[in-house]
Structures are given as structure tokens and as C-alpha cells.
Amino acid sequence: MNIMIRGKHIEVTDALREYVLKRVGKLEKYSDEFMDVKVTLLVEEGRHRVEVTAPIHGIILRGEEESTDMYASIDLVIEKLERQIDKYRTRINKRMRTKVLKDHEPAQPVTSDEDEEKVVRNKKFTLKPMSVDEAIMQMNLVGHNFFVFTNSDGHAVNVVYRRHNGDYGLLEPET
To answer: Mean pLDDT, to the nearest integer, of 48-63?
Structure first.
């Protein structure tokens, strides 16, 4: 596992680097297939946020946690990723048609006041052909409320989203 650690508004000390490597390294007990795991440590206005992105065979596990202590944030984000792995182990293994994730017992089961709207973040991503069920699983794994994907049935760009009542919706272009 290749772990890349980056700090924003914080110097990544040797002690902090060692702690991140130790804690993120725990994910190896779930799979030997983790590729480049990206860890971002961020400090803003006294809040310590940790973002971890761990791709594994086209699936992206993502966790983000925030607290007043960086070490506590690291612990929280690792616990979140472990819960995601436990929750989706069967689905991921079935999808991969192989035992990608090892059997492991789980440790434990912004509002804006501005009138103007502006783009504050721009992201680029690859559109991967997948089924609606796979897209919903991927959306839940990254912890977002929506997910853009290429539908493997119609080869059109679709969006799945989580509705207020907890159900899912699908946006398809008209043909």
C-alpha cells in the first residue's frame, strides 16, 4: 500500500506522519489490493480535518472527519472507513467476482448567507460504465448525496441521488 500524506495549513511532522502510516496501514488487514491511498490533513479555524481516499479495483472508499484534535480526526476517519468496508464487503466481493476484501471481524458494528452563487470547487473525474446498483453503492462509499456515472445499459450519463426520505432517485437524459 502506497500512502501519500499531504498537509494543508499544517506541517506534517514525523510523529504525525508515523501515526497516519500506522492507522491507515490498518486497512491492509481488509485487503492487499489497496493502491495509492491519499491522506489530506487540513487545519481551518481551529478545526482539524482528515480526508482519506482509498481506491481498490475501481471502487473508491472515502472518509472525511473533523474534530478539534488531529489525532482524534485520524482515528475517526479510519473507524468510518472500516465501517464502510464492513457494510459493503459482500457487495464489493460479489461485484469483483473474487475475494478482494478479506474476512475480518469488525471492531464495532454548510449553509451560505450570500445572495450570490459561485463555484467554489471544481472536480474532474472519469466516467466509468456501471449499473445503477453499482452507482448507488459507489455513492454511498464516497459519502455523497449524488453520483454521476455512465449507465452500462444505455451508455448515457446518468445521476443517482439520495432523496430526503432516504430513497434513491435516477436522472436520465431524454432521448
So the answer is: 87
